[in-house]
Amino acid sequence: MATSSQAEPTALVTGNQVATDPPSPALAPRAIIDMRRIQALAARAESMVGQIRQRLLAPESRKVAPVFTTAQLAALCGVDKPHINYRLTKGDLPAGQLTPTGGKREFTLPEARAWARAYRGEKMRPKGQRAVCIAVANFKGGVSKTTSSMILAQGLSLRGHRVLAIDIDPQGSLTTLHGILPETDVSEDMTISPLCHGETRDITPAIRSTYWDGIDLVAAAPSCSALNSPCPPCRCATRRPGSGACWPTALSRCGTSTT
After folding, report:
1. Predicted TM-score (pTM) of this structure
2. Are 227 and 196 in contact, with CB atoms under 8 Å apart?
3. ∠ CA 133-109-131 to the nearest 5 degrees?
4. What span, in angstroms and rounded, lies between the C-alpha atoms of 157 and 259?
């Protein structure tokens, strides 16, 4: 007996169709993050920071202070160039060095500062007087606090003053501008943190010299982020009398002290 096969009717589909994604394969299990892996990542990051430092400070591993021409020295001393040439004949101030071609004379930063002190002696800090403190502060980021602090420090030192720059920024931007990397070159005890936490009353051990003659630095490190939080009054040696707040709340992130 003959049978006839009939095709199954197809459903009529109308309208826009949204394609469905095929089922995704099962995700592979994530690797366990243990201390060994974290230490390996930290070592890799430290190596990368070192490589970046070498590129930023090339061709020298450290920053180098500038030299000054006779015209620039005259501007620092507030006199004209012929006067500098005349004063050189007296031999009582650094004479600098002639360039290899002998066309001009250059002065190192310490030499230029010696000239500035000689011509601005009446404007230096009188003996026995306290230093002047300048704070650069703003709650908003990216408004040139660090740049202003650096320019103030270098400008004052070029005029013969001694400057102590204090960096309180956990990012350590002012520290980095002095050729020091906060992440690798600065530990917590080398910052202002022990003073703010009441562990000491003397900041002298944290003061370090810099490549710029006349500027000393108290560096910053990421651990300084704790200074942004109030500290217990009983532990804070810098707490203001009659106040529950400690001095870091009143300090700028970058400060300078001049003498």
Report:
1. 0.69
2. yes
3. 15
4. 9
Amino acid sitting at position 208: R
- Return d(Cα 141, Cα 135) in angstroms, integer: 16
Best CA proximity match to 109, nearest among 177, 180, 210, 206: 210
**Higher-confidence position of 90 and 236:** 90
CB atoms within 10 A of CB 195: 21
Question: How far apart are the C-alpha atoms of 245 and 247, rounded to whole Å?
Answer: 7
Cα separation, 75 vs 45, in Å, equals 45
Q: What is the pLDDT of residues 142-181, one digit of tens each?
A: 899 999 999 999 999 999 999 999 998 888 889 989 988 8
What are the CB-based long-range contacts (under 8 Å, 24+) for 8-14?
none
Please, what are the domains in the chain?
A: 55-123 (1.10.1660.10), 124-258 (no CATH)
